[in-house]
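Researcher: Good morning. I'm working through a list of sequences from a screen, and I'd like to move beyond sequence-only analysis. For each chain I'm collecting a predicted structure so we can compare shapes side by side. This is the next one on the list. No need for commentary yet; just the structure.
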Amino acid sequence: MAHSTTRAVELPALREIPVSELHSKQPPVLRIKTDEDVELWKRTRGYQDYGLFLRRLAESVVGYELPYSDPEPDKNVAAVIGMLDQLDRWIDEIPPLPTPQRFGNLAFRTWGKRIETECDDLLKSLLPNDLHPSIPCISPYLLTSFGSFVRMDYGTGHETSFALFLLCLALLRFITPEPRVERQVVLNLFVRYLRLCYRLQDVYKLEPAGSHGVWGLDDYFFLSYVFGSAQLRDQTGIPVNAILRPPLPPTNLYFVSIMRILEVKSGPFHEHSSQLYSIATGVQYWSKVHSGLFKMYEAEVLGKRVVVQHIPLGGLLEWDVPQSQPTFSAASAGPVTTTIPPMAPTAAPWATAAPYGASVPTSTPMPGIPAMPTVSFTTGLPHLPHRLGSHNGHGHGGHVGGPIAPARAPLGPTASSALRPGVGANHPKPSTMPPPPPPTSAVVAGRRDAWTEGSEEKGRSESDSS
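Model: Good morning. Structure tokens for this chain:
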């Protein structure tokens, strides 16, 4: 795949936070407890820093393939990779317990206890002496990057914690936010993190944290699809529906993630991964996939309290919410009611008719709280160029073919099937993943006869009663 040497879109520079300013900032703690807190978080400087950081990472890898090797590797990126290598070796030193457990081997808690004990020492070895005062602001994100040691699960919130850990290193300028280094962060460092998480999930049988089942994008990850679709965004040789023809070459993070699903799940792809199947069959251009995934990540991960309530905020990720927000008082609240207003599900971004690059609202105003402007990752950023076709809706970013039709409802088990029989080298996967066959004429005729018989029986009973 040919790659460009310059950014297609010029993004704002990521700000720098001197260590000397940390003493005046509130330490990171768990701050999100209600849906209102989620909306407040979206108005903070830390949230905007994170959105810009992800945009810069994605833009840096457009047109680049895996495996990637920079002729001048960044020493600090290599140092973080070395730390992940050390955590990987701990898995060898802490093998899983032989007791029969379907999900969550108790040895994972031992591995987690070790990283909790040695986290500060790991960061002291990683960072130069002048950045050591920042360790209390960084360690909470590293500790929550590999799963819950209590519930023994892993999900997109833990993946987000690791991305926030990398953001902290960039705000301190331990990692330089420039395209060449950011490219190494995604194609070398983040790939190493994925491999470590794959091994933790396989060895310790970690359960998906808050999985949406077949209606979610992936049981464990999301950012790998965002970065992978960025790699494929501007090329035209690989269609979006190429994922339906495995095996896929590991040349981008999107394909790597799809092959990971096929390793741990059995059954037809359209049943256990309906969202990915809908994207493959209903979206024509990778640019639309990429922009839609960004919006979906903001709505379904960063916009969900059950996901982000476990992420500590403060310190480098400032919790600078306006102090003029009204506070809820039990004395002025009036009678308590148990009626809960219905919550509308968040539609997939590519299934809407919103213009390319437009913000998708993620929530409604809370009772008793005035409506607040929701800040999107795309706010204030230039639109990506339409490199294919025209700008009249039929080109690179146009809505081709209308909205995506809903995927077929699941017919079988939907949980991750890493432990199910029939998965592995001795049971090869089919080379294609066709959609389910339509009902046969015999089945249709049988249904029609049954309906007719039921109608006749109902008529007889009515005539008898009269």
